[in-house]
Design goal:
The chain has helices at 8-14, 21-31, 39-48, 55-67, 111-120, and strands spanning 37-38, 72-77, 80-84, 92-96, 102-105, 131-134. The chain has 140 residues and is an alpha+beta fold. Helix 2 crosses helix 3 (39-48), helix 2 (21-31) crosses helix 4 (55-67) and helix 3 packs across helix 4 (55-67). The relative contact order is 0.15.
């Protein structure tokens, strides 16, 4: 996982999100995960810690954090969305389809190719996200 030099409270305020106790609790639990986690899994972990945070609050919080760019959303886990606290810079993800290990990949040479493809179809590319599924070295 990429380093997060700023505390989570500052991360939220820097992205325009009010750092309520519940939001911080959800984000702190997510920060403990090295890969990614579904909302249900995250809620289960909070319950194990005797948290009073409800499942609906977890879903709303994760949705807000994704909308504001605080967390990344991945879709490899049985069709359910997964959430991951990543570094700030532009990156993509390698995702193991067996163990669900996630690796952030910072190298990206897609810009020129995307601009060309988009232009040929009358588009202007403004952003892109790539999620590459495969097997990690441990699972091969």
């Amino acid at each position: 996982m990429s380093e997060r030099p700023q505390p989570l409270r500052e991360l939220l305020t820097g992205k325009g999100v009010r750092p309520t106790p519940r939001r911080l609790e959800v984000l702190e639990e997510l920060a403990r995960e090295g890969n990614d986690v579904t909302a249900q899994e995250l809620w289960g972990r909070l319950r194990e810690r005797d948290s009073g945070t409800g499942l609906a609050t977890v879903y709303r919080t994760l949705s807000l954090l994704a909308e504001k760019g605080v967390v990344d959303v991945l879709s490899h886990h049985g069709g359910e969305q997964c959430y991951r606290l990543c570094g700030d810079g532009h990156h993509h993800h390698l995702v193991c389809t067996r163990c669900h290990r996630v690796v952030e990949v910072g190298e990206c040479d897609l810009g020129g190719w995307l601009d060309d493809v988009a232009s040929r179809h009358g588009f202007v590319a403004t952003d892109h996200r790539v999620e590459i599924a495969g097997l990690c070295a441990d699972c091969r």
